[in-house]
Amino acid sequence: MKEPILRVEGITVRFGGLVALKEVTFSVEEGELLGIIGPNGAGKTTLFNTITGAVSPEKGRIYFQGKDITSLPPHKRARLGIARTFQNLRLFSRLTVEDNIKLAMGLPYPAFAPLFSLPSYHKMEKQMSESAIALLKTFHLYPYRDRIASALPYGERKRLEIARALALKPKLLLLDEPTAGLSHQEAISLMEELKELRKGFSLTIILIEHNMRVVMGYCGRLITLNYGEIIAEGTPEEIANNPAVLQAYLGEESLC
Amino acid sequence: MSLFFQQLINGLAWGGIYALIAIGYTMVYGIMQLINFAHGDVFMAGAFAGYVIAQLLPDKSSLPSVILVFLSAMLFSTFLGILIERLGYRSLWKKNAPRLSLLIVAVAISLLLENVGLMIFGAAPRSFPSIIPSRSFSLGSISFTNIQVIVILSSLVLMVALQLIVMRTKMGRAMRAVAEDSEMSALLGIPRERILSFTFALGSALAGVAGVMVAIYTPQINPLMGILPGLKAFVSAVLGGIGSIPGAMLGGFVLGEAETLVSAYISSSYRDLLAFLILIFVLLFLPSGLLGKGVAEKL
Predict the structure, then answer these.
(1) Which of A133, A137, A187, B24 is most buried, judged by most C-beta within 10 A?
(2) Could you give the ipTM of this predicted complex?
């Protein structure tokens, strides 16, 4: 069998006395669109933070493409191809739209080349501009490229956040509630775009989502977290009929 | 009226020097929210590096010697700045240590540098070799020296260069990003430690140049010479709006002018008092400074 792109093994995260994640184990196959659901405070965002390296687990290991990344710093994990977006957008609000994209295009960081205007530096900048423009066009953000990020309307900022994550050329994309704050129509069109991108960029996506219509309609497989533990794993249909999941969502008789 | 213009010229030279040092304070603050109190001593170390090299040169006032003195001061203080960041701040910063811990380290490094300076060079002031012989010019009733002109022009050139680096280059873009949200920068693959080092290097290089400028201008140096200009540059950075590079430049010039005008029209004994009065007033009535964005503290 092929090595899964992400393998999380027995991750435990503790904040003081609070156990945020307890022995969480799962893996994600390449090309999958995995949904993570669970009530508020279940540990979904902490799980993302552990995968990106912002939070270090007390126990357990994380493997990305077979490589143990548990002790790698966040920027190295990003370079390996793990990108994420935030629910409450984290754009660089004082930078232009184009600069936000270029920042994620990264390597390398020559300290002196720009000071001496080396031709190699200009060539690199030019290539970067070209691919930034291509990405901006894909996300219908090209007309806004010179604007300061904070001046964009909400929907555009949301798209910019995803475009910026893709500028990293990630293999694994972690989306934290991408459809929050969008109308049903916008949510569906965003998910359709993501579906296209997944093919185009050969992406694996993990999605935290509260919008059950999105989760049920687009995810191939779901994981349910509650109090930091995985309580159910399976296809959307299996999850929707799982008594433990229904109980976790207290009082909700049906998820759809 | 000619006295006034005369004082403006004098103030510009000191203003340029304060501005160059203040940039280092404000850039480091932008990224780490730390007032790097060792910065004034990096400025002192730059002056001494220039002094040591100038002593070794046979023909002190030739153009290559002058360039060599400035370059070696820049290189040495850059090296020192990077060393301070690596050994003093980095591990604390990575652990998200409380700001107070960083501040205590800053004060400790400052004292360390001053005392190492005293150990090596002693407390007695040394006169700096006149690598640029002073010449006076007059324009109407206003007189100025070639040294003042050099100080003012080169500080302006350096500030423009810095602004270009910060606004136009990839490294500068990354600096602005790390200053706004260092965690997010890391998630986009930006090596934020490297960016921090680069920021210290830039700020320290400017402080080193300022050190040699003061050494030529005054013209003497001692291991405690960094304390007062360091504090005044800090005031300049706060006055301009801490975290803002144009603010630090503006604050430096405003303070330089204000100081010389106070010495000229009131009394030179109030010169050093002024900076601290300004600090108190800015903190009380204009905490975000002249060009500060008034951004609410990030929690």
Answers:
(1) B24
(2) 0.86
